[in-house]
């Protein structure tokens, strides 16, 4: 008997349906006024009369939550694994809140176009474990939900994982056995290779105040390592220091093929991508495969502006890797058929800090001959910059939203705070490589009942390229 999701990544890519709605996490930048974050249901069906419109809003129950990343109660990791809970259905979206520690369980099964809050896991349950700032949610083949956390109760750095029962939604405890990592952020697991690999940002007390070059002047304030755990023993086995080229390794992506023992992590501050891989002796190592050079500028907070790589994703056939440079303002596509030598195949600018009409002047640029122009879709200007990415199952459509984290949004893109963020779409040439902006697709987040919103992560009801983890078939 098969469980939820798809048997393989290629099954999802070739047999999965075209997305008709997207769930978009939206942060309320004016939460001090008692306004709440929400989950927006966005119509992305071109045949629908409400195409590119928000058709439902599921509000959180409290202000000052700061919704960020989400995940499902179950996914493809439960599809064909012996002993898995095949009776479970993918019908609950788990929404952790960074600043409040609150975790919302949202029911999408009754009406996927109008989901509703099913349960709230209160902050006291994380506090009892000395955990704060819950981040990445993944479902496990055990029938549990696991969420990475980034801090302790004093908002110091602490890389740990909290376990939640996928039937009762009760917190069961922590995952790690023994020493925890210095910092936390994202993670990905592969039981076939007895590994869980986790990344690290910095302590919550540091990143919640915004970005400062002083914080990366030394080696101990920002994370610059990936942490390798044994999946079986839950113990931290290796801490791989990426060096100063690897400040703030954030999104962690294994190749989707569960037999592959390699993947990539994007380092935000330095805008570098590192490949991680398993060596013949069973240990893991890394090497840098992509580097985005900083731009020498005037009129900014520093003389050299990094790309600030904030999201990376991989297509289900493991052919293309995409990432966003939130400060420079571009989305890039790389062919990773040669795993050690990615090849740039597409680049589109969607805003950023170096636009031709900005107060910032680019003095020296190793890549561009001129500063990019502002981007307009349907006569509307995009404010902010490309940040979160979500790819259609078939790989032909790349959705992009603009918000990173409200404190950083406010620091670098105050116009987005005032006018709201955006969601745009890039059309992808999956055969030859390349991307182009869809000039007929725009979702605006400025005319909301409670004012402008900051759109962040996106999910499809049936799973996507970042929420599903596949395991080697054990049946």
From TrEMBL:
Which Pfam families does this chain map to?
A: SBP56 (PF05694)
- Keywords on this record? Selenium
Which GO molecular function terms does the record list? Answer: selenium binding
Family to which the UniProt record says this protein belongs: Belongs to the selenium-binding protein family.
Q: What is this protein called?
A: Methanethiol oxidase
Taxonomic path: Eukaryota, Metazoa, Ecdysozoa, Arthropoda, Hexapoda
